[in-house]
Structures are given as C-alpha cells and as structure tokens.
Recover the amino acids of this structure.
C-alpha cells in the first residue's frame, strides 16, 4: 500500500470519529474522489476518455500566438517558457539600457531543493502545472487554461500535495530555516512529506486534499465539490514537469465563464455604449486572437460554466 493510500485511509477513519455510519459515508466519499480523478462517473465503473484529472498550465491570451508559432517542443525548443527561459531570452535580446531580468530568490531556493528530489534535473528545467478536474485552472496565473493531453504525462512525474512556494512561507520556512546549517537536508525532508507520483498517488492525494477539514455528516460529495476542492484559487496539487510543451501536446484550452461574460459585455458596449476603454478592447482582441490561432491547430477553447456535471 502506498504512503498516500495509508494517509487517506487514516483520514477517513479520523473523520468517522468512531461512528461506523459516519466512517462509511467518508469512505464512500474517498472512493468517489478516487473514481472521479480516474474518469469514472458517480454511478459508473466505465471511465470516459474525456473525463478524469488533467495537468494544466495557465497563460495570458497575449502569449498564446507565440506559443503556437514556436511549434513542437524539442530538446532545444521550449515553446512554453518558465522564468529561466524568459530571463535567458530577454537577456539575449536586451539592450545596454537596464539589467536583464532576475529569477526570484524564493523560486531559486525552492528549485534548489526540488533538484535534489528530481535528479539529475536542473532548476531551469522545471515547469509547474496543477491538477485540475473540470475548472479553468489557476486564474491568478493568467486567463487561458492550457490542458495537456493525458499521454504527455509520465506515470513517474513528480506531484506535490501543495504549491511548492509553501516551502518558502510560514510555517514550513521556519522548519527549514534557509541559510542555516543543514537547511537543504531539512528542506528535502519537507518535500519528501509532500511528494508523490502522477499515476500512483494523485487519486489518494486528492482524497486527502478534498476531505481534509471536512465535517462529519451523512451527505455525499458531488463532482462539483470535488472539482472545487482540488483546485481553489492558488491552492492546488502541483505537478512538476522537467520539460516544456508545445501546441501539439494540448488537448484543449479552457476559459472561465466570468471572463467569457466580460468579453461579451465589452462587445455589447461597443454597440450600445458606453464605449469600452482601450485596455478592455485590447484584452478582448488578444483573447479572440488566441482563440483563432488555437482553432487553426484544431484545438478547441471551451468555456467552463460549471465545475460539476451538466446535461448537454
């Protein structure tokens, strides 16, 4: 039995509080979460190809055309760029005025630790995604959610039960004490408590994340509740890839219903007034252009109207 399965079973028992009926409900919830992450419906044991968790990355619509133009990812071509790729490119293109962009010290510290875990990877090779079910990803990190094809994710891909930035924030920061003797060993110890692998551990990691803090009651979880629990704002299960990706690796793009509504409202104001601002018009233009270039590659852009099940 995997460590994350043991953790999820212990959590279910704790939430039951010694009450057999309550524990039965929480065990049913746990089974539901595992099934949903694998693509099963609430009342089905047949997985659907389009269902189940995915790895997503959020990107501004302004950068989607450049991602598509860059073509497929190769050893020497990184269409989706991390902070190191961006800094390297800007440094090569920058004039003599001003300094080239620098990597955040927080990110450098976190990646130093992750490099110990994902040997022989280097810090510049890390690309941070999230586990998503039915939502539009980490909207803080921009408005277009790029969904990778399932076959692009290796079974052994490193997954962390939380955002790796938590290693540089309280209370984990105080446990690690960066800069003090043996801090890297303590940091690795903390990562060991958070890590898992994509194929083996995500279902039980999802159980722990969604049920942690749950109340004891005789009501079952729904798909929407599970989806919202998996990714809420900046609280998500992190996927650490060691390679970039290009448009051929995408299954689809997703945008939130709220952003789609704003887009439509701006269009309506163009016809009826008051006239939208230049910023609003630019934002809408970039989104429509991103949608167009993705469609040219047969990648659909889907508006997420609900995190739960819907009838067509």
């Amino acid at each position: 039995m995997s460590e994350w399965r043991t953790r999820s079973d212990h959590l279910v028992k704790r939430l039951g509080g010694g009450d057999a009926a309550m524990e039965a409900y929480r065990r049913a919830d746990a089974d539901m979460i595992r099934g949903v992450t694998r693509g099963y419906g609430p009342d089905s044991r047949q997985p659907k190809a389009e269902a189940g968790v995915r790895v997503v990355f959020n990107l501004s619509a302004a950068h989607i055309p450049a991602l598509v133009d860059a073509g497929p990812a190769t050893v020497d071509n990184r269409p989706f760029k991390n902070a190191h790729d961006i800094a390297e490119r800007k440094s090569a293109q920058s004039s003599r005025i001003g300094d080239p962009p620098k990597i955040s010290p927080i990110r450098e510290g976190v990646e130093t630790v992750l490099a110990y875990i994902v040997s022989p990877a280097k810090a510049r090779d890390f690309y941070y995604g999230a586990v998503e079910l039915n939502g539009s990803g980490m909207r803080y990190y921009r408005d277009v959610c790029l969904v990778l094809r399932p076959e692009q994710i290796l079974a052994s891909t490193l997954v962390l039960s939380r955002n790796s930035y938590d290693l540089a924030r309280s209370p984990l920061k105080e446990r690690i004490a960066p800069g003090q003797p043996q801090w890297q060993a303590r940091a690795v110890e903390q990562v060991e408590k958070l890590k898992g692998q994509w194929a083996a551990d995500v279902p039980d990691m999802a159980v722990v994340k969604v049920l942690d803090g749950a109340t004891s009651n005789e009501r079952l979880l729904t798909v929407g509740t599970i989806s919202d629990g998996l990714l809420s704002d900046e609280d998500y299960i992190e996927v650490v890839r060691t390679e970039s990706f290009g448009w051929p690796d995408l299954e689809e793009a997703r945008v939130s219903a709220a952003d789609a509504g704003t887009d439509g409202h701006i269009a309506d104001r163009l016809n009826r007034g008051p006239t939208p601002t230049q910023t609003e018009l630019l934002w809408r233009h970039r989104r429509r252009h991103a949608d167009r270039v993705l469609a040219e590659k047969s990648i659909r852009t889907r508006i997420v109207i609900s995190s739960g099940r819907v009838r067509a």
Q: What stands out?
A: The CA atoms of residues 260 and 303 lie 7 Å apart. The chain has eleven helices and eight strands. Strands lie at 54-59, 127-132, 144-148, 158-160, 195-197, 238-241, 250-256, 301-304.
